[in-house]
Specification:
alpha+beta, 3-stranded antiparallel beta sheet, 3-stranded mixed beta sheet, 2 helices
């Protein structure tokens, strides 16, 4: 059938399951190989969740009010950071807790 001088497009194959499965298998293989290269060169992810914020290892990309953790504690990781030995290859991008109740107590202690 023709519409305005153009052939009707062929129907797109609805079942892309095999192609998607093969693509995901390729991604998993790539992740495993990259992991072995990281291990060979002693590249490790930076621990973040529950750790105190450290400007030497972390990059704060946001804050969140949290009453259940200490002020300055990392509560979320946006991007994983990596180290090679003691050298930081990429800082971890994190969200840092702000606890107004603990901050007020800390200010009161310094004033006395």
């Amino acid at each position: 059938m023709r519409f305005f001088g153009v052939h009707e497009p062929q129907p797109i194959v609805a079942d892309h399951g095999q192609a998607v499965a093969a693509w995901l298998d390729g991604l998993l293989l790539l992740e495993r190989r990259l992991g072995t290269v990281f291990e060979r060169h002693a590249v490790r992810p930076i621990a973040t969740l529950g750790e105190p914020f450290s400007p030497h290892r972390h990059l704060a990309v946001g804050t969140r009010v949290e009453d259940t953790v200490a002020d300055g504690t990392v509560v979320a990781e946006e991007l994983t950071g990596y180290t090679a030995g003691e050298r930081v290859l990429r800082h971890a991008e994190v969200v840092v807790a702000r606890n107004p109740t603990m901050r007020d107590d800390h200010v009161d202690e310094e004033a006395s």
